[in-house]
Amino acid sequence: MKSYSVFVYVALLEVLIIVSLTSGRDLSHSFSELGHVRGNGRNANQFVPRPPSGHNAPVVSVQLDLAQKKRYTSNKHTVYVMKGVSVGGDFEVYAHSVDGSRLKIENKVKDNTSIDVTTNAIKVLVYFWNLEPTKPVMLQVFDDRGSYFLSLNKTLKGENHWSKDFVAFRHSTVGNELFERLDHRVCAQFKAAPVDITKTSRYLACGSSEVQVSSTPLKGDKYYKVSHVFPDGLKPSRISHNGLPTSIPFPKDVRAVYAYFPKEGMAKLTFSPLLVEVDDGKSHSWYEVADDKKTWKKKVVSESQLEQVLDSMYLKHHGAVIFDISLEPEKFVPTAMTDPATAGRFNGVTKKSKDNPNVAGITLTPKVGDHFRVSGYKNRQYTRVKGVMTQGAASIQTGLPIGALKSFTMYNCSGEAKACYIESTVQSETGWYHKIPTSHVWKKIELDIGNPDNILECRLMIPISLGGCGKPCPTVDISRTAPYSFDKAKVDVQKAESPDIFHTYVHTMKGVKSDGLTYKGNYLSLKGTKSFLPLVNASNVHVTVYFWKRNLAKPLLIEVSSGGSDKVWYENAGSDGNTVWNKITQPDLLNKLDHLNCLLNKAYVVDVLNTAKYLSNCNHIDVERKEDPYNHTSGYIRYTHTLGNAPFTVSKVTIKGTTQKGMDESMLDSVSKISVFYPRSSADHVLIYVEISKGNSSQGKWFRKETGIKSEL
Question: What residue stretch is flagged as signal peptide (predicted)?
Answer without folding.
Answer: 1-24
